[in-house]
Design a protein that fits this description.
alpha/beta; Methionyl-tRNA Fmet Formyltransferase, Chain A, domain 2; 26% strand; 312 residues; single chain; six-stranded antiparallel β-sheet; 2 domains; Rossmann fold; seven-stranded mixed β-sheet
């Protein structure tokens, strides 16, 4: 049975899922994505990744400002969708919308539910040093990410993996997982497993303020913060009042009783900064305000010696 599907998604994470839907036997009758916004350093208005793919493939695109019944119900109901599929759309879906398609709506969620419900599951998992994460296909209900689960897939998190790398892999993993769920739904053989509320954890939306590095924390925690906030909002610190974004780092082999934030060594191999547990982190790739991303070697070439100075 071919399903008529409306897809909800906006950023790059959602693109593999839309591509998988378009390659499946099912019909994507429309794509709902967020309104166009200024993007990039030039703040030019341009298509988000999902819209760009939909336009390229000739799929109808809807960009409602609000998902109110008054503004959107007639148009949405007129699509005659059997099912809605959501992947990183970016807005809470109202109850009336959930009840409109015959088979409801399902979501490609980037965590192993019931852990890390919410807006930033990948980043929170990496920042917390989790050894693994994954994707869950779940039915959308009124409560946040609390619906029954239809399929899961696991992705280990390596000790140097960034959120950017994990997200890229989960996007592909989730797209492949979804196709099997769609086939089961079409055949009437899908199984839905309730979540254990006692195991639920939450992953709130990231803020720019969370990027400020606190060197009094253990070295591993600082390293996890740096890789977890890559690429946005990015971890940062200050040196002599100038902001410095840290894009890539590692836990240093050096140990030192120096005060947290002290630069222990700075050379071509990295900028080593003391942390609160006696350990340290090595900055590898950094970005001064208004400049490009550069290696520690290139940064030091323009700033002279920083050994002995305090970051923070």
């Amino acid at each position: 049975m071919r399903l008529r599907i409306v897809f909800f998604g906006t950023p790059a994470f959602a693109v593999p899922t839309l591509a998988a839907l378009l390659a499946s036997p099912h019909d994507v009758v429309a794509v709902v994505t967020q309104p166009d916004r200024p993007r990039g350093r030039g703040q030019r208005v341009s298509d988000a990744p999902v819209k760009a793919l939909a336009v390229e493939r000739g799929v109808r695109v809807l960009q409602p400002i609000r998902l109110s019944r008054e503004l959107f119900e007639t148009e949405f109901a007129g699509l005659g969708a059997d099912l809605g599929v959501v992947a990183a759309y970016g807005k809470i879906l109202p109850e009336w919308l959930l009840q409109t398609p015959r088979l409801g709506l399902i979501n490609v969620h980037a965590s192993l539910l019931p852990t890390y419900r919410g807006a930033a599951p990948i980043q929170r998992a990496v920042m917390n040093g989790e050894p693994e994460t994954g994707v869950t296909i779940m039915r959308i209900v009124k409560a946040l990410d609390a619906g029954p689960m239809m399929a899961k897939a696991v992705r280990p998190i390596g000790p140097t993996d960034t959120s950017e790398e994990v997200e890229r892999d989960l996007a592909t993993l989730g797209a492949a997982l979804l196709v099997g769920v769609l086939d089961a739904l079409a055949a009437g053989t899908s199984i839905e497993v309730p979540q254990d509320e006692a195991l639920a954890t939450y992953a709130p939306r990231l803020t720019k303020e969370e990027g400020l590095i606190d060197f009094t924390r253990p070295a591993v925690a600082v390293h996890n913060q740096i890789r977890g906030l890559r690429p946005w909002p990015a971890a940062y610190t200050y040196l002599n009042g100038a902001r410095l974004v840290v894009h890539r780092a590692r836990v240093s082999t050096r140990q030192s009783p120096a005060p947290a934030g002290t630069c222990l060594m700075a050379d071509a191999a990295g900028i080593t900064v003391a942390c609160g547990d006696g350990g340290a982190v090595d900055f590898l790739d950094v970005q001064p305000d208004g400049r490009r991303i550069m290696t520690a070697r290139d940064y030091l070439a323009g700033h002279g010696t920083v050994a002995g100075q305090r970051f923070g």
